[in-house]
Design goal:
360 residues, binds pyridoxal-5'-phosphate, globular, D-amino Acid Aminotransferase, Chain A, domain 1, alpha+beta, six-stranded mixed barrel, nine-stranded mixed sheet, D-amino Acid Aminotransferase, Chain A, domain 2
Length: 360
């Protein structure tokens, strides 16, 4: 295993977190970094104080978008243990994004080791109030300085940490979603399966339009026909029908959510029928008018489970469960948090403990 160099701040171990954490607004004071070159592979691993990056204006990621990221969380349990939720899944996905974008993969065991070291050093930044967590943002980007489209030879990998508040501080409120058929986010065989900056840049205009109409999120339809439901902003979507729970199957334009996979597993474990299949927007409308839709919810690391109260598509306004969160969504939310905060035995092996020095 490659060695990590430690350049640590000499600081007290208590951290004053502001009462309102928000999401991704404050950062812990160390990062993990390493560099890549074809000659040396990944090297120069270091945990060091957070500082500004100095980047050449010709750095390739700025011009050609060769970059990928992840988003996962660490949780502090009631007895002060620190748990990571399925970190290996996130690094596998980061490597899949890297492959699609012609970037070097990271060694998953080493990345998890480095992450645990960093989180252990930054453990005092993990907030402990209900619903709070440490959000982890590993990312990888191209650094060659040349204006010309080709894969870069050099890269940097960084893990940045940010303490985040409960996603729904006032409780579990259903969100309103606008279906978008004017723009698409990705297309099959494009980069929809990657967490790469361009996909989010492509989503901004539609999200702004939705926001101006009073909607929090956009529901994306497929990039070819704008017929099939794909996903919501930064969440995968589930529809609870009378005799099955359905979620769009992974056709190539959809992000393979770790929360999505976990929720499918949990629902099946509870004995529900879950089908990953194509769902057209017309089918959703039809099922709605037939009274078959019990509820709709989104899944993603940030909010974990997000209840959907309303979907608007052209002149159709679908309202679910009288604008109240549906029972299944609430039950899933509670159970996912039970796993994440280590409140129940982890029968699926989803969490990994971060070793904490005995001195605390
Ligand atoms: C990150 C993300 C998700 C959710 O994935 P999780 O692994 O559950 O956090 C869904 N859709 C998009 C577009 C995303 O970026």
């Amino acid at each position: 295993m490659k060695n990590i160099r430690y350049e640590l701040l000499n600081r007290e171990n208590n951290v004053n977190l502001p009462p309102e954490l928000g999401f991704g607004q404050i950062f812990t004071d160390h990062v993990f970094e390493m560099d890549y070159s074809p000659e040396q592979g990944w090297h120069n691993s270091v945990i060091k104080p957070l500082s500004q990056l100095s980047v050449h204006p010709a750095a390739m990621f700025i011009h050609y978008g060769q970059a990928a990221f992840e988003g996962m969380k660490a949780f502090k349990t009631d007895n002060n243990q620190v748990l990571l939720f399925r970190p290996e899944r996130h690094f596998i996905r980061l490597n899949n994004s890297a492959k699609r974008l012609c970037m070097p993969e990271v060694d998953i065991d080493f990345a998890i080791h480095a992450l645990k070291e960093l989180v252990s050093i930054e453990r005092h930044w993990i907030p402990t109030r209900k619903g709070e967590a440490l959000y982890i943002r590993p990312f990888l980007f191209a650094l060659d300085t040349q204006l010309g489209v080709r894969p870069s030879r050099t890269y940097k990998f960084i893990i940045l940490l940010t303490p985040v508040g409960a996603y729904y501080p006032e409780g579990f409120k259903p969100v309103k979603i606008l279906v978008q058929d004017e723009y698409v986010r990705t297309v099959r065989k494009g980069m929809g399966e990657c967490k790469t900056p361009g996909n989010y840049a492509a989503s901004l205009l539609a999200a702004e339009i939705a926001r101006k109409e009073g909607y929090t999120q956009v529901l994306w339809l497929d990039g070819v026909e704008q017929k099939y439901i794909e996903e919501v902003g930064t969440m995968n979507i589930f529809i609870h029908l009378k005799d099955e729970v359905v979620t769009p199957k992974l056709t190539g334009g959809i992000l393979h959510g770790v929360t999505r996979a976990s929720v499918i597993h949990l629902l099946r474990d509870w004995g529900l029928t879950v089908n990953e299949r194509l769902i057209s927007i017309d089918e959703l409308i039809q099922q709605y008018h037939n009274g078959n839709v019990m509820g709709v919810f989104g899944t993603g690391t940030a909010a974990v489970i997000s209840s959907v109260g309303e979907i608007k598509y052209n002149n159709e306004l679908l309202k679910f469960n009288d604008g109240e969160p549906e029972e299944l969504a609430i039950k899933l939310f509670d159970e996912m948090l039970n796993f994440q905060y280590g409140r129940i035995p982890d029968r699926f092996g989803w969490t990994q403990q971060v070793p904490i020095p005995v001195s605390i």
